[in-house]
């Protein structure tokens, strides 16, 4: 069982929920974590159990980064929006940096998320 973080920027939330739904049976065998709004959307859209952290702009990305630094997260699925400026861009960058630093299995789009899930 892997500990998987689920995050999506606003314009990517529908896509992430659709991806989780398409992979519902596989993901049900894992421990799911999410930033506040994303986690809520996944629960609502799939019925899966997700532990929700704070919303991204209020520190949720930072919480996931801390989990990675402390060895408490194995996989990060983070559908990012490259077309919208974000108030918490520094937190997003920090999360990207920590996932890279700690060699975390890390997907930033659906194609990579499919490959990561197949590798679990
Ligand atoms: O902003 C986010 C990631 O940077 C996601 O946060 P929410 O899931 O709370 O919208």
TrEMBL record:
GO terms for molecular function: methylglyoxal synthase activity. Pfam families: MGS (PF02142). One of its GO terms (biological process) is methylglyoxal biosynthetic process. GO terms for cellular component: cytosol. It comes from Paradevosia tibetensis. The keyword Phosphoprotein does not apply. Substrate binds at residues 9, 13, 35-38, 55-56, 88. Catalyzes the formation of methylglyoxal from dihydroxyacetone phosphate. This is Methylglyoxal synthase. It catalyses: dihydroxyacetone phosphate = methylglyoxal + phosphate. Belongs to the methylglyoxal synthase family.
